[in-house]
Every structure is written in C-alpha cells, then in structure tokens.
Amino acid sequence: MRLTDEVRDALAGGAPVVALESTIIAHGLPRPRNAEVAAELEALVRAAGAVPATIAVLDGEPHVGLTKAELDRVAYDEDIRKLGTRDLAPAAALGASGATTVSATAFLAARAGIRVFATGGLGGVHRGWVTVQDESADLGLLARTRIAVVCAGVKSILDVPATLQRLETLGVAVVGYGTAEFPGFYLRTSGEPVDWTVSTPEEAAAVVRAQDALGGPPSALIVANPVPVAEQLDPALHDRVLTDALAAAEREGVTGQAVTPYLLAYLTEHTAGASLEANLAAVRGNVRLAGEIATRLNPRSV
Ligand code: PSU
Ligand code: MN
C-alpha cells in the first residue's frame, strides 16, 4: 500500500485526514466533469483544515492519496476497473488498475489508519432483491470496519427500507446529521426514520470517540447528511425518471457491478443533468462535513 508523503506525515503527526473514494469519479460521474470534481473535493477537504486521501489502485498497488496526475488517470482512463474489497487481491496480483468502491476504500482507509471517509451515497440492497440477491458489498464491509462514513444515505435507486434493515441486522450505527429522517441521496429525505440525530460536527466526533472507547467488534458509523433542500432533485421528476431507469436496466439485462453506474448515468441523461447537480451538491456537503468531523477528532492543524 503506497501513501503519499503528505498523508503519511499527517497520520504520523496526528493531523486530520479524510479518505475519498474513486469509483464515484471513474464510474459515477461523466467525463470530463469528473476530473474537476475530483480536484474540487480534495480542495474542500483542505479548506476544512484536513488532508485529503483519495484512494485507488494503480498498476496493482493500492494508493492512499493521489497526485494530480494519478487523479487524472483515474478520471480519464476508460479501462479503469471498479474494485470492491474482494477485487483488491486479484488486482494486486495481476497489476490491474481500478477505482475503489465504498467497500474497498473503507477497507484501505482503515488499514492506513484513517478514521473519517466521505462519499456520495452508499451501495445497499437493490430493488428486486428476492430474485437477484444484489446487495452491495459496502454493507458487509462496513459491518466489520471501524470508520466513520459521511454520506447522503444510500443511492435512491436502491430498496432503502431493506437497506436500513440490513444495516440494523449487521449492527452498523446510523445517525442523521441535523435530521431524524434518513436522507434520500438526490432527495433531502427518503421518508424513513433514523434512531439517532447529531446536530454538530462535535457531536458526530463524540460518537466516533465513543465507538473507540467502547471497543468491541469494529463496525462503521454512518453519518447520514442530507443534501440541502434548495439543491435537491425535484422529487416528482426523481420518481418518474427512476421508474423508467429501473425498467430500462431490466429490459437491457444489466446486472452485477454494471447496475449502479447504469442507473446513475440514466438519471443524469434523463433529468438533463439535474440529478448530477443534486448528486454533486450532496457529495460536496458530505466532504465538508467529513473535514469538520476529522478536525474535531484531530485538532492538530496540518
Ligand atoms: N455514490 C455515488 N456515486 C457512485 C457510488 C456511490 O454518488 O458511483 C459508488 C460507490 O463506490 C459505491 C458503489 O460503493 O457505487 C456501489 O456499487 P455496487 O452497488 O455495485 O456495490
Ligand atoms: Mn451490486
């Protein structure tokens, strides 16, 4: 595993670090906007006073922290793979390059000693689970990894109540940030309740510290941070286009790892980019909040 000097020094010196995933860059956003976003997200972490560590696998080697050239490679390389945790060993052995999903990013971040991670929306239980058994590996990995993940809930293309139930079964803590409702990724709310609410970065950091103090089997903390209402996707448009997207995916026989990127791209295209803007607004908010939580946990400045 290769750490940039900046990330290594920050971790060694007890300075705040925020992990960022790369699948959203490589497979979740259209080129060339994705490259701009990748750089913007790192800048947002820095503005909060923390060091960004975007994670990806390049030529078989997991990288924690990327140079500008490496970030551009993740954004522009059309052959870059999508790697979950289970793909890391084959990729390492075969020298492959890939963007890391929430599961692989959380795994590598935790191994590097990073405590806070920001993303857009988690993977989860797909609609129609009864026939396809498609549940993102994100959930199982978060059930056994001590990391705080700031996200806008789970992608609304999923079965949200089933995903929340799985998180409960798996013992993953979920707190709403400034809300008692689980966010709906593109939407401010999914309509589902959450059991716990925190209202400030300090409170979120206190939950992280309490997890550390309690010990016990490692598991994640999901900090569910809704997109601001002014920047959410119009709920009626969302519901209509999502119904079409799910039908199109089924008609075209899209399965496995391709499902999530297919649906996200379909929504972007059929909302004339409005879903993309809502997605980006959510991610930006998550990255800012992750920076604020990380600086509360590690107050030493960088
Ligand atoms: N959130 C986004 N865009 C994305 C993803 C999340 O805003 O592209 C990615 C994450 O990397 C997540 C993955 O881990 O989608 C889930 O894919 P799957 O359902 O195949 O596990
Ligand atoms: Mn899947």
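^ pseudouridine-5'-monophosphate complex. The chain has one domain: 2-297. The pocket of pseudouridine-5'-monophosphate (ligand 1) is lined by residues 21, 23-24, 27-28, 101-102, 119-121, 123, 136-138, 155, 257, 260, 264, 279 (CB under 6 Å).
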